[in-house]
Amino acid sequence: MSTHEEVSSICHVLTVVDGLSEEVIDLHELEPFDLPAFCLQFDVPVEHDPQMLDRYAVGPDDVAFLHKVMEVEIPFDFTTNAYFIEAVERRGD
Question: What is the value of pTM for the model shown?
Fold first, then answer.
């Protein structure tokens, strides 16, 4: 189990991955991150992943939700890219 300090050093992002090269081509920080809303939208097994630290695939059914919670609206192209919600270590300022 993670300590409070470990959990507070992470943030959640929308990761955009190129479908051909599988390289990360963009990251969008999700701040503020409404954990209960994301857990509901992505059907997170809260008993196994209460802080949503695993990687969750984004599908076309998730776009409207993400457009509501993201500060910047991005175009989603599921024919060329894959999208994931994941926890990453927060960058130092």
Answer: 0.85
